[in-house]
Amino acid sequence: MIRFALRLSLAGGREAAVRLVVIATAVALGVGMLLTTLAGMNAVGAQNQRYAWLNTAAAPAASDTSADSLWWLIREDYHHGDSIGRVDLAAAGPDAPVPPGLPRLPGPGEYYVSPALDDLLRATPAAELADRFPGHRLGTIGRAALPSPDSLLVVIGRTPAELEQLGGQQVNQIMATSPSNCPNGCYIGYNRDAMTLTLAVVAAALLFPVLIFIGTATRLAATRREQRFAAMRLVGATPRQISVISAVESTIAATVGTVVGFALFLALRPAVATIPFTGDRFFAADLSLTLVDVLLVALGIPLGAVVASWLALRRVQISPLGVSRRVTPKPPRAWRIVPLVVGLAELAYFIGRRPGSTNGQLTVYLSGFLLILVGLVLAGPWLTMMGARLLAGRASRPAALIAGRRLADNPQAGFRSVSGLIVALFVTSVATGAITTFVANRTAPSTTSVAATSLSKIFWPEDGPAPTADQVPAGLATIPGVRSVTVLHRNPDRDGWQGVVTCAELERLTVFGSCPAGAQVAEVPVDLIGLSADDLADGGHVWEPSALAATEVDRQPILSVVVDTSSRAGFEQARTTLIDAFPTGRFPASGAEWEANGARQLVQFQQLANVVMLASLPIAGCSLAVSVAGGLSDRRRPFSMLRLTGVRLRTLRRVVALETVVPLLVVSVVALGMGFLAAHLFLRAQLDYTLLAPKPSFWLLVAGGLVVSLGIVASTLPLLGRITGPETARNE
Q1: 468-483 burial by CB neighbour count: b if 16+ within 10 A, else e?
Q2: What is d(CA 84, CA 90) in angstroms, rounded to the nearest whole number?
């Protein structure tokens, strides 16, 4: 029987060959995406593990107290907005622990850099970057210590006395625990579970359309196959034999598709590694697969295809006459929209009632989004039926009437081929709406804003005594590109975040606002900007007056030094000068740089949402094309009879097009609308923000994806003329 099944599958003519190719293609896409998802999750863990050593300051004491200790200090520096991790080390003995990726500890006046930072140092004038690092380069840091190929890291050797003065601490072991499981509050790296959850959502959004594609491909020419299998049953074939024939056909296609999927994953792995899922690129080797992953995909996908084939042809297993007893399925009921309404109601209920804990918020919001998504999938057939009835009721031409009646009679079939769009468009619209609004409210200032062109060095009390005026480098003001250097003093009447500056100084610094009329001293934020960057950009911002006399300002401790610049070169050279002059505490930075990290990660999530949409829409278009082609094949005789009675070919093409376009547009509009509504309710509940309209680029992506999907469908319409000739209308 297996040999007979192989002959039917491989020698069954063009129709059988096309079916095998389509199923294999669908399986290959599914396998490739599934392998990429599994490898991506493994890469997240590998990348996060290499963040571990940077959290050594939080490492618990080693059980072996006889080991030599290591002086340790880690801080964040910047260059043109890019973060640089700077680790200062000093060995307290010959057996001090050595971080990964280093052949030995650097001595005083020596340092190691990551390959990416090494390239940056070679391309940048020393006054703008290299002069911040005392001594000379020993070499590059090995991959074992680099989370990403783009990581900017420097490990600088010091003496114990220097590090004690800089505020370092002694440790006796290098942290090896992943930041996801750090017991003492690791602050570098990310929560692997949260990132894995994000990638799992992305994977589901990508895989769902592919699974729909596989199911649709498996049902290709289902009517003719059912008739053929039913004829076999009539001549004595048993249900088991029919199952074997069907399973062999599906297994061949699934096996070929699985092999191609593995090859597709290996070919695209270097390109996938460049996608910054976590904000940083992966090493290609990190996108690895475990033996369990390989076995799961290699065995599970063909098995799933066999099950799908059996379910698609289960009617033949009941009776050889079952395929001839076709009845109109029951119309979907309005109860299908209940989960959708409940999900929206849940998100709306928590506006003003936000749960206090993070776990509570995750439970509430994720369950609400899941209910809405499930509700969309359940309500899809009912919405399709309502759209079809509206189309049939307002039809003024035969094509619209026929298409509307056919969709209304079987909306489940019409919705099935476009259901993959539900997940893609819903996830994308939620992510786009939430991220666009969040970025608009918390984004980093533009590169021309004073918050981006000025940097400040702040002297916090915990960093030691504040400097004196003569310790501020006099050469700062002479650096090309520096417009002004301002010394702020501590406000004795306010908290540590506030400073004071004389109104005479503010008059010289027109970009930083002004004093109220009659005032001599103004109260200003520590960086002369605070939360007023937008107001400063508009001009005319007035600070609050201070009761302090102008003659008393210089007697207060220095709070910060603020440098405003007109060029990126001057900005970086001023930063280098400040770092060399004041090596303790946090390094100078701009307000834009402090805010850029959060905005950068949000942009990465937006890119993931765009990937979901750009990948899902063409796949959904392929599902539509296969569904249309399968429907044409199954209805070739009725369409041929209509052509013999005088119906024009273009009318039949309009029927097929309308049967496709109506579910596609209904699903797209509803999914986008529900996604933006869910995003608005979430933003109101969690952040008290109002949803902002997405950028035009989002709508261009949606429109482009839909046009591509419809173009793929249109490519199947010429098939209608070839299969509906008079010879097809003969009685069989």
Answers
A1: eeeebbeebeebeebe
A2: 20
Q: CA–CA distance from 136 to each of 8, 107, 157, 369 (Å)?
A: 73, 10, 10, 54
What whole-number distance in Å separates Cα of residue 431 and Cα of residue 78?
29
Task: Encode burial over 506-537: b for 16+ CB neighbours within 10 A, e otherwise.
Answer: beebebbbbbeeebbbbbbbbbbbbebbeebe
What pLDDT is recorded for position 324?
A: 47
Q: For 486-491, what is the mean pLDDT?
A: 92
How many angstroms from the chain centroid is the CA of residue 401?
A: 43
pLDDT band per the 50, 70, 90 thresholds, residue 152? very high
**Residues 145/46, Cβ–Cβ less than 8 Å:** no
CB hemisphere CA count around 357 (13 angstroms)? 3
Tokens of 510: 């027109």
* Mean pLDDT, range 266-285, rounded to an integer: 84
- Average per-residue pLDDT in the chain? 81
Q: Tell whether the model's pLDDT for residue 318 goes beyond 50.
A: no
- Encode 97-150 in three state secondary structure: CCCCCCCCCCCCCEEEECHHHHHHHHHCCHHHCHHHCCCEEEEECCHHHCCCCC
* Separation of alpha carbons 222 and 229, rounded Å: 10
Count Cβ atoms below 10 Å from residue 297 Cβ, excluding itself: 21
- Looking at per-residue pLDDT, the higher value among 226 and 489 belongs to 489
Cite the DSSP H helix spans in 237-290: 239-273
Structural tokens at position 432: 């786009």
Residue with tokens 């596989």: 214
The alpha carbon dihedral of 667, 670, 674, 676 has a sign of: positive
Q: How many distinct helices (H) and strands (E) make up the chain?
A: 23, 12
pLDDT tens for 195-230 read 566 666 666 666 667 667 766 766 665 555 666 666
Identify which has the larger pLDDT, 26 or 692. Answer: 692
Whole-angstrom distance, CA of residue 264 vs CA of residue 182: 37
- Under DSSP, is residue 236 helix (H, G, I), strand (E, B) or coil? coil
CB hemisphere CA count around 35 (13 angstroms): 30
Token look-up 């000093």 returns 90
Distant-in-sequence, close-in-space partners of 147: CB < 8 Å, separation ≥ 6: 47, 48, 50, 51, 189, 280
Residue 452, phi then psi, degrees to nearest 5: -100, -25
- For residue 559, give the amino acid letter: L
Q: Which residue has the higher pLDDT, 406 or 338?
A: 338
The pTM score is 0.73
* 3-state helix/strand/coil string of 299-341: HHHHHHHHHHHHHHCHHHHHCCCHHHCCCCCCCCCHHHHHHHH
Residue tagged 């790296």 (tokens)? 189
Question: CB-based burial of residue 334 (10 Å sphere; 0-12 exposed, 13-18 middle, 19+ buried)?
Answer: exposed
Select from 316, 307, 300 the least CA-distant residue to 247: 307
